[in-house]
Amino acid sequence: MAFDGLDSDAPRFYDDLAADNTREWWLANKARYDAVVRGPFEALAAELEPEFGQLKIFRPNRDVRFSADKSPYKLHIGMVSLTPVAYYLQLSATGLLIGGGSYDVPPAALARFRELVDDDRRGPEVEGLLSALAEDDLVPMSEDALRTAPRGYSIDHPRIELLRLKHLAVGRTEPLADWMWGPEVFDIVSDAWRGVGMWNGWIAQNLGDLLMRPDRERPGRR
Prior knowledge:
222 residues; alpha+beta; BirA Bifunctional Protein, domain 2; 7 helices; globular; disordered C terminus
């Protein structure tokens, strides 16, 4: 399938799913999902892969085993690169989330990141990189950040906001816009991911093997 844009019916699909998130509705609308959501998303992934590597598109099913919300289906579709430091794209009823980095950070890697942020020389380096990314609206994903200082660090630390991070991911949201339904979305995502690549490169260089968990050491396990 040649890529000529995402489908403008995709946000409406997720609005409709939110109103009736049941297996019965899903089965009745599975062909619509394939046509207006997954098909164009797969075509976009195929266009992005030559530059950014193999991309996985997540299944629509939610893991409800440990959730009070038993709604069976996600209200978005996402793709991620198959690397420990990743690129990520998500489409929902409200628009796009474009980002990347390391989301599920192992404790040893997070501890090392905080040591670097605390360092008088390396800390400003991290700040400078993130400031450069912020010029393109790529900012740390801090929704789950600590509310106070991590153990061993002062609440008055000059880089306390970075020390509070639990995920080493950056991203930006794009509200629904006409450019998403044409080929321009490929250029916009590519440009944003090139910025994310600067952050990914820093993480890989400075945290390296600390990012690997035992269940990720074999290819294809993600």
